[in-house]
Amino acid sequence: MDEVIKIILKKKELANLDKELVKKVINNNLNTKIKKLIKEERFKNKDFKEFIKIVRSQLRRQYGAFQNPKMERMELVKKKDYLNLLKSHQSTKERLPYYKDFYNKLWKITGKPGSILDVGCGMNPVSFEYMNLGNNIEYLALDISKKDLEVISEYFRQKGINGSVKVFDAARDDYNFNKVFDACFCFKLFEILETTNSHRLTEDIILKLPAKQVIASFSTKTLSDAPMTKKRRVWFEVMLKRLGYSFETIELANELFYCFKKDF
Ligand SMILES: C[S@@+](CC[C@H](N)C(=O)[O-])C[C@H]1O[C@@H](n2cnc3c(N)ncnc32)[C@H](O)[C@@H]1O
Predict the structure, then answer these.
(1) Which among 192, 215, 218, 219 is the best mutation to test ligand 1's pocket, defined by most ligand atoms within 8 Å of the CB?
(2) Average pLDDT for consecutive 10-residue bins of the chain (264 residues)?
(3) Is residue 145 lining ligand 1, measured as CB closer than 6 Å?
(4) Per-residue pLDDT tens for 40-83?
(5) Which of 49, 196, 198, 202 is the least crowded, having the fewest Cβ atoms under 10 Å away?
């Protein structure tokens, strides 16, 4: 298995991935034939190569497409180069011109939070720079990428924020943190996690989130950068309605945010 993980991680844009995540995706795609090829170390075999392609493309979809491999994040945070740190991740890079205004608008809807849970956080905790909140905020940052979380942890330390990080699989792990957070960010998360069209996973997660207010976002541009014609996620709106949550939206150039209250 270690050898297969190594092969997967040879691609530069995937090199930072958490090995446990890679292992999970490998296991999800294994069949008897591939298991036999691995056992016999026939890594040049056509079917094995096809298997590697599939695993890599799933990982890219879930994680790799958001990385800028040219930027070493730990170096950036050590230099306190927060701007380039935000630029090193596609999602935070796109939000840069709007962050300040966005958080102003968001706090008008939710009130300023004293605690934040950021699920699948990427580099978003570094946008604390634009949140206009005091350092005594309690911030729990969750992501599948251990390496990125080490960067976030260093950022919290430098800023004196009461923050912590946890390697967390949003699709499978337990959401019990012995606390109800004021706000929970699920930015550009659900459509990465969903592998089917049933949206059952998103509903399960929303029900489990230990937060008074949830802010979930969706990209409004296609993978080829064109603006989407239908930006609203009707399935998400129907689901929120069914769960009894009324929502407000905030729209940025490339992203649509839904804000709703949970009953706590
Ligand atoms: C599109 S990025 C969004 C990052 C951040 N929320 C933002 O909008 O700035 C998706 C993030 O989800 C993380 N991720 C992918 N699969 C995950 C999983 N199963 N559990 C937790 N995080 C995951 C990735 O590592 C990546 O940081």
Answers:
(1) 192
(2) 91 81 87 94 94 88 66 92 94 96 97 97 97 94 91 97 95 94 97 81 96 96 77 95 96 96 84
(3) yes
(4) 999 999 999 999 998 998 888 777 656 666 668 999 999 999 99
(5) 196
Ligand 1 lined by 202 (C-beta under 6 Å) = no
Q: Does residue 151 sit in helix, strand or coil?
A: helix
d(CA 184, CA 232): 20
Q: Which residue has the CA at smallest separation from atom 26 of ligand 1?
A: 122
Q: What pTM value is reported for the model? A: 0.84
Rounded CA separation 133/22 (Å): 36
- CA–centroid distance, 122 to ligand 1, in Å, is 6
**Which domains are delineated in the chain?**
2-66 (no CATH), 89-261 (3.40.50.150)
pLDDT digits (tens, 9 = 90+) for 77-117: 999 999 999 999 889 999 999 999 999 999 999 999 999 99
- 254, 219 in Cβ contact below 8 A? yes
Transcribe 76-136 into DSSP letters.
Answer: HHHTT-HHHHHHTBHHHHHHTTTHHHHHHHHHHHH---SEEEEET-TTGGGGGGGT---TT
